[in-house]
Specification:
Layout lengths: L6 H7 L5 E2 L2 E2 L5 E2 L2 E8 L4 E8 L2 H18 L4 H17 L1 H12 L3 H21 L7 E2 L6 E9 L3 E4 L7 H12 L4 E4 L5 H17 L6 E4 L5 H8 L5 E5 L2 H13 L3 E5 L4 E5 L5 H13 L9 E7 H16 L19 H16 L3 E4 L14 E4 L5 H4 L6 E7 L2 H9 L3 E2 L1 E5 L3 H8 L8 E4 L11 E2 L2 E2 L6 E2 L8 E9 L24
Parallel strand pairs: 1-5, 8-9, 8-11, 9-10, 11-12, 13-14, 13-19, 14-17, 16-17, 19-20
Antiparallel strand pairs: 2-3, 2-10, 4-5, 6-7, 7-24, 15-16, 18-22, 21-23
Bound molecules: 2-aminohexanedioic acid.
Length: 519
């Protein structure tokens, strides 16, 4: 099914060896660790390369180094910090094809989406460069005469960025590029399922950093063990932990950080729904649902997992979805005809089949798919199931191309069901009814961080703030004012008068001490 003859060339061009070191300090120093774990090509089940595991003392050294570099980096003017990110974006433009290929190889996402991921890095770099010239604060009206009250934003400190396999490069860049222009340093702990992408990105960053006075701003620690995440979350030297992954691990990161009054930014599980109402344009809804449900093999946080269809469209939409699914080419992520690549690993394949079995046991009717493919690679069929929103399997996020379909009669019921899950990342309504559209995005409408009208749940642009509510974790990354999470706010009042008026009109008769008090 797969042709992998060009793989060694791509790996070599991106600086990947057969056995790769466990950490990078960001100054060009790479260091070995202990043992090794394999990065597996999900399309073949074969290892691409091995990576060593970071040792506790070495992780400690990475953190100490990030702290030292931070003291220098925070004093570099923000627009200059932006120049580093701008140069990094240029390097990524030059390496886009190779990096896209590596992402496709390592995660199994199709090449078009993998290239899109590199583009997303370039896009957030552009956002960060612009931001570097306008990290703005407010000037506020003071109630006291001859006082000026303002707030400014200062660099925060070392940021630990813990990323998932499904966006092995872009999610790091959302955090790292914004953090870097904000004056922070970044320690990256990538998913053990996509370490090679991280190594390739770090190597690119190392070269650019050396040319832009940014050595050590970005560092990397690799492991397939749990302790580095826990260690980073617990370390008082880490100013912010930005975590992307399951709600279960996110909860742990939040607890460990909160105990030490550390900050955390969570982007956890989603359980995103599309609602198609009676007025919807099915020509828009159909491709959006297919991309949302099977893009990245259903392994995006923003994947469309639930579909609420108005009864008038129900049968037609299901028939057309089945028809579309039947034409989806499943196979090698590097084949331009492929729309659905493999799941990340055997565990994911089992979880997919387990969820399908659970839904069927609960009474779910299988409308399409449901099988996996024997042989190498972790391929599954795109799957459509008639389900009930209250079923436990529908309430949780299964990272797989499974779409649960449910009919509805009234828009208010559909919005209520959209919200009736523990997660709150993304949501979408297809409608031509202005009232429905406004109801969906109003305060009592969708409770998600993202609420779209006439476009799907996934594929957000970087210009907006990205994240969601409830068990999604409440964090916001990427654009808008998400940068504020990477800085500390300082309210500063300057009295330029000759008196000392107190706020709230308080008179406090401090005795005069001009003549001094005799002991
Ligand atoms: C993720 O799945 O963790 O909105 C991120 C999207 C992408 C990012 C997904 N821009 O689907």
């Amino acid at each position: 099914m797969t042709q992998r003859k060009d793989v060694p060339d791509v790996l070599a061009r991106l600086g990947i060896d057969e056995l790769n070191p466990a950490l990078a300090l960001g100054d060009g120093t790479w260091q070995g660790g202990v043992g090794g774990f394999a990065s597996i090509d999900p399309a073949t089940g074969q290892p691409l390369a091995m990576v060593q595991r970071v040792l506790p003392d070495d992780l400690d050294r990475v953190v100490a180094n990030a702290r030292t570099v931070f003291r220098r980096w925070r004093e570099v003017p923000a627009p200059r910090r932006g120049l580093f990110v701008r140069a990094l974006a240029d390097a990524l433009r030059a390496k886009k094809d190779d990096l896209g290929t590596l992402i496709a190889l390592e995660t199994g996402k199709i090449k078009a989406e993998a290239n899109g991921e590199v583009q997303e890095m370039i896009d957030i770099a552009d956002v960060a460069v612009g931001l570097s010239r306008r990290l703005e604060g407010n000037v506020l009206a003071s109630e006291r005469p001859r006082h000026r009250m303002s707030e400014q934003w200062h660099p925060l400190g070392p940021v630990a960025v813990i990323t998932a396999f499904n966006f092995p490069a872009a999610v790091w860049s959302w955090n790292a590029f914004i953090a870097a222009v904000c004056g922070d340093t970044v320690i990256w702990k990538p998913s053990p399922k996509a370490p090679l992408t991280a190594i390739a990105v770090q190597r690119i960053a190392d070269t650019v950093a050396a040319q832009h006075g940014a050595t050590g701003v970005f560092s990397l620690a690799l492991s397939d063990e749990v302790w580095p995440t826990e260690r980073l979350a617990s370390d008082p030297r880490i100013a912010l932990v930005s975590f992307t992954g399951s709600s279960a691990v996110g909860r742990r990161v939040a607890q460990l950080s909160a105990v030490r009054f550390g900050r955390y930014l969570l982007e956890c599980s989603g359980n995103n729904a599309v609602i198609v109402d009676e007025s919807a344009d099915l020509e828009l809804a159909l491709p959006a649902i297919v991309f949302g449900a099977i893009g990245t093999a259903g392994q995006r946080c923003t994947t469309t997992r639930r579909l609420f269809v108005h009864r008038t469209h129900h049968d037609e939409l299901i028939a057309r979805l089945c028809n579309a699914y039947a034409q989806v080419h499943i196979g090698d992520p590097l084949d331009p005809d492929t729309l659905l690549g493999p799941l990340i690993d055997e565990e994911a394949r089992r979880a997919c089949l387990g969820a399908i079995a659970e839904a069927r046991a609960a009474g779910g009717e299988l409308l399409y798919g449901g099988r996996s493919f024997p042989g190498h690679g972790f391929y599954v069929e795109p799957t459509l199931l008639r389900a009930n929103n209250a079923w436990p399997v529908v309430q949780r996020e299964t990272f797989a191309p499974i779409l649960y379909v449910m009919p509805f009669d009234r828009i208010e019921d559909a919005i209520r069901l959209n919200n009736a899950v523990p997660q709150g990342l993304s949501s979408a309504l297809f409608t031509n009814d202005l009232r429905h559209a406004e109801r969906f995005v109003a305060a009592a409408g969708s409770d998600c961080g993202i609420a779209n009208v006439n476009l799907g749940t996934s594929g957000a642009e970087v210009g907006g703030a990205f994240g969601g509510e409830k068990e999604t974790g409440g964090g916001r990354e990427a654009g808008s004012d998400a940068w504020k999470a990477y800085m500390r706010r300082q309210t500063s009042t300057v009295n330029w008068g000759n008196g000392l008026p107190l706020a709230q009109g308080i008179e406090f008769g401090v005795p005069s001490t001009k003549s001094g008090v005799q002991p």
